[in-house]
Amino acid sequence: MPLVVFCGLPYSGKSRRAEELRGALAAEGRAVYVVDDALVLGTEDATVYADSAREKALRGALRAAVERRLSRHDVVILDSLNYIKGFRYELYCLARAARTPLCLVYCVRPGGLSGGPRVADAVDHRGLNLSVSWRPRTEERGRPLAVGTPVLREPQAVDSVASGRTQAVVPKELEPEETGVPDLPAPVTSEFDTCEKRMVSTFYSPELMEALTLRFEAPDSRNRWDRPLFTLVGLEEPLPLAEIRAALFENQAPPPHQSTQSQPLASGSFLHQLDQVTSQVLAGLMEAQKRAVPGDLLKLPGTTEHLQFTRPLTMAELSRLRRQFISYTKMHPNNENLPQLANMFLQYLSQSLH
Question: Does residue 214 carry a pLDDT above 50?
Answer without folding.
Answer: yes
